[in-house]
Amino acid sequence: MHFEFYILNFEFSFMNRTNLINLIYAKRSFLCIGLDTDLTKIPKHLLDFDDPVFEFNKQIIDATHDLAIAYKPNFAFYECNGTKGWRSLTKTIQYINNGYPGQIFSIADAKRGDIGNTSQQYAKAMFDPASSGMNFDAVTVAPYMGEDSVKPFLSYSDKWIIVLALTSNKGAADFQFFRDPERRLFEQVLTKSREWGNKENMMYVVGATKAEMLTDVRKIIPDHFLLVPGVGAQGGSLQEVAKYGLTKECGLIVNSSRNIIYASPGLDFAEKAREEALKMQQEMTEILIAK
Amino acid sequence: MHFEFYILNFEFSFMNRTNLINLIYAKRSFLCIGLDTDLTKIPKHLLDFDDPVFEFNKQIIDATHDLAIAYKPNFAFYECNGTKGWRSLTKTIQYINNGYPGQIFSIADAKRGDIGNTSQQYAKAMFDPASSGMNFDAVTVAPYMGEDSVKPFLSYSDKWIIVLALTSNKGAADFQFFRDPERRLFEQVLTKSREWGNKENMMYVVGATKAEMLTDVRKIIPDHFLLVPGVGAQGGSLQEVAKYGLTKECGLIVNSSRNIIYASPGLDFAEKAREEALKMQQEMTEILIAK
Questions:
Q1: CB 3.0–4.6 Å: which of B36, B176, B207, B220 could bond B257 by disulfide?
Q2: Can you give the CATH number for the domain in which B52 is found?
Q3: How far is it, in rounded angstroms, from Cα B229 to Cα B138?
Q4: What is the least distance, in Å, from the CA of A182 to any CA of chain B?
């Protein structure tokens, strides 16, 4: 049904920094919707479909695609369903690519990272549709194993990696604040890793629950985009995030998952998801205009 | 064909520490074979099978199951093939569980880790066959996100997590040696995380390429099992690893992947893999006897 866009936007179907920024200003939004799709939480009537998880995602995407600039399937929620879950995941990214080319920044929230020859295979999984059937714009990666665990993802042009820096959970304090005389580990991750790529192919995860720390983050990476989880269910505030993290090119992608996708457990779930997404998009529009 | 073992060993089909140690002494081996199965590297004649990756794994396992105590499918090599790859992976773990119950310690080499509610879903993927079809004994996890990213995996009894401490790759130096006045990050990971579980449900990854550092590791965790990658293709030495890492209950699982599974590109690949595995098992037997 959305293939009419395919011809119109084909040349924009890779999502480089310029296209991403254009998308943000066109939609007046920097909202990412997290597709943490859980069979036990989706409306019961969807369980009659052959692939309830995909059907849920499809309806959420169709109801919110003009309000969100990005979708972020969280791989764990698909892997827990085994092979069937990977089929739902693959269908979801294909639906985004074919249905809304050039209109969605797609993020594989997979938190991968391993030795070089292994990360190379993970990169194929995320970025090489001829191999895996999947063609995301970006993948989240864990930095613990260092440069050669991250570099293989950067060998794909027009693709992005989003490195974990400062996460939104309580456990972030266990190691991310570990410090040498000069800086904390998350600052060391920012400082070292920014040399591996540039602001055209790297972003960072910085949790909304630690918004005041965005000042420290911005000292090291003033222009990189940040993917910010933790607004909503985890307690972070959009205003705080914008106050400390916004740049003149926006520089933020703020994720919300549960607050939007599970806004209603009933037949009206997609409509209610749209209402929640609209609230966020409107708040974001005001923030962008004020800036 | 191997179901005759099922009745004999059913009560051993969960792999707690005692059973694991018994297995090591029964087979006189602490060898793990890494199933990094790559469609471009397996013998050409297997490409005629409906599922070449599974067929390769099956023949490798059948040819080496008495010499290896563990198999470690590396998830990246399955994910790069998309849904089809997950089917090969699922069939492989099911083959191990059904064909060799109580005789194999199975490791999901997935390097997962995310906020609590997400790690919970990853744990279901690895440990809950009713949900995902997969039932591994252990999963490798990345520690960057701290305690709440790791704990959900520990809520399964008789299952193990294997935390990345000191990895075998060059990039390990980027962050794992970052230090505060008292210790380096990998030592901080060992020190903090050992409180989250115990030697009955936690192991650590320590690369063979850094064998001399096993002395520092053993000061912090004298009794925990270590999963040691990097022997063989990556250049680590089995003798060095044993010298610094072996305990009175063995305490080591040493992995080899490419050296064994790609010993021959021909029709004799399984036979040649057995020859390579046998060399390692014999060296391990000598090490165990000498101890």
A1: B36
A2: 3.20.20.70
A3: 15
A4: 10
Which among B87, B145, B190, B259 is the top mutation candidate for probing chain A, defined by the most A β-carbons within 10 Å of its own β-carbon? B145
ipTM: 0.95
| Separation between Cα atoms, residue B73 and residue A289, nearest integer Å | 51
Range of the domain at B154: 4-290
Contact A169 B134 (CB under 8 A): no
Q: What is the pTM of this model?
A: 0.95
pLDDT digits (tens, 9 = 90+) for B233-282: 777 899 999 999 999 999 999 999 999 999 999 999 999 999 999 999 99
Q: What's the confidence (pLDDT) of residue B9?
A: 46
A124–chain B nearest CA distance, Å: 5
Query: CB distance A118–B87 less than 8 Å?
Result: no
Query: Nearest Cβ partner of A148 from B115, B149, B170?
Result: B170
Number of domains in chain B: 1
Instruction: Judge contact between B99 and B3, C-beta under 8 A.
Output: yes
Chain B nearest CA to A290, separation (Å):
33
Check CB contact under 8 Å for A167 and B145.
Answer: yes
| Contact flag B132-A80 (C-beta cutoff 8 Å) | yes
**A79 and B36: CB-CB below 8 Å?**
no
The model's pLDDT over A67-93, given as tens digits with 9 standing for 90+, comes to: 999 999 999 999 999 999 999 999 999
A111 included as an active-site residue: yes
Give the three-class secondary structure for B204.
strand
Give the residue-averaged pLDDT of A28-57.
98
The tens digit of pLDDT for each residue in B105-139 reads 999 999 999 999 999 999 999 999 999 999 999 99
Chain A hits for B145, Cβ within 8 Å: 142, 164, 167, 169, 171-172
Residue B188 with chain A: CB contacts under 8 Å? 175, 178
Report how far residue B69's alpha carbon sits from residue B65's, in angstroms, rounded to the nearest whole number: 7
Kindly report, residue by residue over A266-290, the tens digit of the pLDDT.
Answer: 999 999 999 999 999 999 999 999 9
Shortest Cα–Cα distance, B78 to chain A (Å): 8
pLDDT at B12: 52
| CB spacing of B145 vs A128 below 8 angstroms | no
